[in-house]
Structures are given as structure tokens and as C-alpha cells.
Amino acid sequence: MSHPVAWIVGGVKGLGVPLIKGLAQDGYRIAMNYRKSRQAGEQIQQQLQQSGTETLLMQGDISQVEDVKRMGDEIKQKWGRVDVLVCTAGPFIFKRTPIRELTHQQWKDMVDGNLNSIFYIVHEILPLMRIQRYGRIITFGFPEVEQAPAWEGYGAYAAAKAGLVSLTRTLSREEAPHGITVNMVYPGDIRDPYKEASIQMAKGQIDPQSPVGRPGTGEDISRVVRFLAHPDSDFITGAMIPITGGFTNLQFHVK
Question: Which family is this sequence assigned to (predicted)?
Fold first, then answer.
């Protein structure tokens, strides 16, 4: 591929930043979007441009079909292709809230942001990938999501992500004949300041929730995403890949 394009959805802050930087190092032109974090987006765009990476920074809310279509059109007009689509974005309510106490709007926000939005984005980008007969789509879940577990207090998010598992697996089967792989990664409980940190920064640090001992980092996630994005990873599709350090959601708590 000559000058491939990666769209990292909602990646200008947090875990998406190491993904952007890693894929840029791998030679991708980078499309990225933000909803409100314009300053963070402009900052990483400037860093990438200084290192010679072509970038496209877009404002848009992925839960809105019109915004997704507009952003897709911007990428098509600028580069005419998308080779890798990484869907990191997805809202989460950190306050433990039983289903009965959720408002209708909170439920809608969780489902729109974590499930419907992925359908909108994939629906926009798949025609390009089918023309190319090549594509890599990577979605994000939470620990053990492929088992559709109960997650008391976070049921709306869990339901949306469990639905995303089925969507990911269905797409992996439907798009395999077109040279497109679709996989999910799920991080453990990675929090600031480690979301944008390197593995080296976490070495020697203690995380009592992590069976491996140290905190997880954005670089841990980036290494796996870059592997899945590689052209030679074409035999891996429909996979749910944990990047958790052994953490399970039974250990989750709001700090």
C-alpha cells in the first residue's frame, strides 16, 4: 500500500493518543476527530506534522449520523481511502447507577455512543474498503465483554458493548470475502496518568488491581492495535483480544 490512511475515532485524548502516534510511526496518514477537545486535537496534529505525518483533524459527534457522514466525506475528498479504522470513542458513566435509576437520556447516550455510532462509522467507511478489497477495523470493549457478563451499576454501557461484540463478529464474517478484518480489543482499567504513557513509565510502579503488578498503559494497547492493523494480520478476524494484565471487572471501582 502506498501512503495508507488510518482513522482513529475519538483519539485525540487518552488511549487514542498512543494509537495515533504509533500508526503514524508505521507510515499511516492520520485522520482523527474530536467532539469538544479542539485544543488537544490541534496539539497532537502539530506534533505529527512536525514529524512529517499528513493529518486531517475533524470536529464531529460520532453519535450523530450527519456528523459521521460529513467526516467521512472530508476523508474521501482529501485522500479517497481508509485502510484502518480504530473506534476508540465511547462514553462511560463513572457513577455507579443501577438500571432502574438511569434516565432515558443516559441510556440513549450509552447506546448511541458505544454501539449505534460504530454502525454509522462502519456503514460510511466499508464501501471504500470494499473497493480497495482491503481494510482493518478495530473496535473497543471491556474485560470479558464477549461473555455478555452482568456489570452491576454500569448496565447501559455493558449492554451496548456486548451488542458491539456481536456486531464485530458479524462484520468479521460478512466482510472477510472482501479482504477486511474486524476485531475487538479490550483494555483493563487503565487510567490517567497512564492512558497516554509508555510501558517504560509504568515499569516499577505498583497497581494492586493488576495481577501482573504494574499499571497498564496506552502503549500496551497501541502495540496490539498496530499488530492487528498490519497487512500480514489478515488471518486474524472476529477475535476478542484482552489487554488487561489479568484484570477483571469484579475488581473495578471508582477511584
Answer: Belongs to the short-chain dehydrogenases/reductases (SDR) family.
